Amino acid sequence: MDDGLVFHKTPRGQEEAGHPGDGLAPKERRCLILIDGTKSVAELAAQFRPGELATILRDLQASGYVEAGGGAA
């Protein structure tokens, strides 16, 4: 995964971050909260164990909570 990639919350992700309800795993919830449309994958990765973030981001993206938005701002 490109370290410069920036993710954004979708409307579903914004709703879930504000009003938990879907039963996300704690690491997925933490990642969703940290995603703000400005932090790159490299910046987010510092908050997780090595190699862990890519799977979390893929799961959040596949579930419709986040989307990739290009390079770092």
Strand content: 5-15%
Topology as a string of helices (H) and strands (E) = EHHHHE
Helix content: 40-55%
Radius of gyration of CA atoms, rounded to a whole number: 11 Å
| Global geometry | globular
Helices, by number, come to 4
Q: Would you identify the regions where 5 or more consecutive residues have pLDDT less than 50?
A: none
Beta strands, count: 2
Report the sheet with the most strands, covering strand number, pairing sense and barrel closure.
2 strands, antiparallel
Mean pLDDT: 91
- End-to-end separation in angstroms reads 17 Å
Structural class: mainly alpha
Helix and strand topology:
Blueprint: E1 7-9, H1 11-18, H2 26-34, H3 41-45, H4 52-62, E2 66-68
Antiparallel strand pairs: 1-2
Helix pairs in contact: 2-4
Protein architecture, described:
A two-stranded antiparallel ribbon has the order 1-2. The longest helix is centred in the C-terminal third of the chain and has 11 residues, at 52-62. The chain has one domain (7-68). By secondary structure, the protein is mostly helical. The mean pLDDT is 91. It is built from four helices and two strands, in the order βααααβ. Helix 2 (26-34) packs across helix 4 (52-62). The two termini are 17 Å apart. Helices cover 45% and strands 8% of the residues. The protein has helices spanning 11-18, 26-34, 41-45, 52-62, and strands spanning 7-9, 66-68. The relative contact order is 0.31.
